[in-house]
Amino acid sequence: MSLLTVIALYVLGFILLSSVNAHKACSKNANLWKSIQYQLKLVETTEGRCDCDTNELHGHKMVGFLAKSSKDQTNVKSGSTVIFDKVVINTGSGYDASTGQFVAPYEGLYYFSWTTLTYYSKYFVTQLMHNGNIIAGNYPDGRGLSSGKVSATQSVLLHLAAKDKVRIRTYETGQHMYGGKWCTFSGFKI
Question: What is the C-alpha to C-alpha distance for residues 81 and 78, in angstroms, rounded to an integer?
Fold first, then answer.
């Protein structure tokens, strides 16, 4: 018998003995006992391991990515894909940093968000595209400002089929987008 099992049984015995007099407590204790049994079974079947390296959690396929632009982007042609080339995480391998495109590995509901930052007298208009269709736009516009920076963030929720494509593209010629930690593109399967 493992140490964890012994501890769990000790805690359970203490709870059961401390509340024998109340029927409601007995009912709650029965539910607690079922919960403890379930947890113990999980510990026993995984031999105490956390299988955190897997891309599946209780039958749910995990997908998620976060990428950022490592360098400033200037005068990007209208309609061009914005490349977020520095991948922070890419669970499920759906995001391709070389093309700037996310391809859904599984069907499901996905959440996407992107942030762009430009500076005074410049702008950087972008759109989120789903299989060639415009879904949402993002418009940090520093024109008319004499100093400082302007950022914009947009988020969308989409139902994707497996192999659907999502990307961020410029709408007008993108004058300037900061690189580094300021401009990101992320998404995950709910």
Answer: 9
CB distance 143 to 89 below 8 Å? no
* Cα-trace Rg, the chain: 25
Q: Which residues pair with 188 in a beta bridge?
A: 64, 111
8 Å CB contact between 73 and 123: no
Q: Render pLDDT for 32-46 as a digit per residue (tens, 0 to 9).
A: 677 777 766 766 665
- C-alpha span between 167 and 100 (Å, rounded): 6
> What's the pTM value of the predicted model, to 2 decimals?
0.70
Q: How far is Cα 47 from Cα 52, in angstroms, rounded to an integer?
A: 14
Place of tokens 């026993």: 44
For the record, the structure tokens of 47 come out as 């031999």
Beta strand segments in 77-173, E: 86-91, 95-96, 101-103, 108-119, 126-130, 133-138, 149-160, 165-170
